[in-house]
Design brief:
The complex is a heterodimer of chains A (about 100) and B (about 130). By secondary structure, chain A is an all-alpha fold. In chain A, about 80% of the residues lie in helices and about 0% in strands. The radius of gyration of chain A is 17 Å and the shape is elongated. The chains are: A mainly alpha (about 100), B mainly alpha (about 130).
Chain lengths: ~100, ~130
């Protein structure tokens, strides 16, 4: 059976979640802008692939930052993550790194 | 934890401001900036609570996987846990997609697509106050 660490779970969840959400957001909201670029440059596949790669890379970096910050604050295991007293600390880390201010 | 613990919807002016920044970066063909800004928007639409709950659900899924030895049972438990917190089953699939990356390798295409679709619709509904 595969053994996973907290770091691996956080990395996977945050990275995939952000990546999927972002790519769908682009597709749904900014297609019109892309059509104009595609018409002038004639290589839509390349542009799309480039953007997908950039989004994936950025999502990966953000997830790594969250993992590192959790470790810095001694949240290193699943047990640490589940401690009640750590919940606000974890939420703050997520908000700070993702610049969520709502 | 639960629905009440999730972040409030992104306010309209911030949504519009980030959207405009994304449009400008597309016009400038600055795709790196565009990627940053769109992730910023996606994260703000999702909110801290949703991302926190997604990780917790991932952990629950992992525990089930450890207990049963079954990858799909682990993924399903992640979904169940997420759904239990009061979010729609559709958004829970977002967790399944994410967890899929861990449990099931990279073979998450269908789940990921459905998840992103549902997650984004849910986020928009919250944004416009449905």
């Amino acid at each position: 059976m595969k053994e996973l660490t907290l770091n691996q779970i956080v990395q996977s969840v945050v990275e995939n979640y952000l990546k999927n959400l972002t790519l769908d957001l682009i597709k749904r909201n900014f297609t019109e802008e892309f059509y104009s670029i595609e018409e002038t440059e004639g290589d839509p596949y390349k542009i799309r692939k480039n953007i997908e790669d950039l989004v994936a890379e950025t999502a990966k970096k953000i997830a790594s930052k969250i993992v590192n910050k959790l470790n810095e604050q001694d949240i290193k295991s699943i047990e640490d993550f589940e401690k009640n007293e750590n919940e606000q600390k974890i939420r703050k880390i997520i908000a700070d790194i993702l610049k969520i201010t709502n | 934890m639960g629905t009440a613990s999730r972040s409030a919807p992104l306010n309209d002016s911030k949504y519009k401001r980030i959207s405009e920044e994304i449009r400008s970066s597309i016009k400038e063909k600055n795709y790196a900036k565009m990627a940053d800004k769109t992730i910023d928007l996606a994260a703000n639409l999702a909110g801290v609570g949703t991302i926190y709950d997604a990780i917790k659900s991932g952990i629950a899924g992992y525990k089930m996987y450890q207990k049963t030895g079954s990858k799909s049972a682990g993924a399903m438990e992640a979904v169940r846990t997420f759904a239990k917190e009061g979010i729609t089953s559709g958004l829970a699939e977002g967790t399944m997609a994410a967890i899929g990356g861990t449990f099931l390798g990279n073979n998450i295409g269908l789940y990921a697509k459905r998840a992103a679709t549902w997650a984004i619709e849910k986020s928009y509904s919250r944004l416009i106050g449905d």
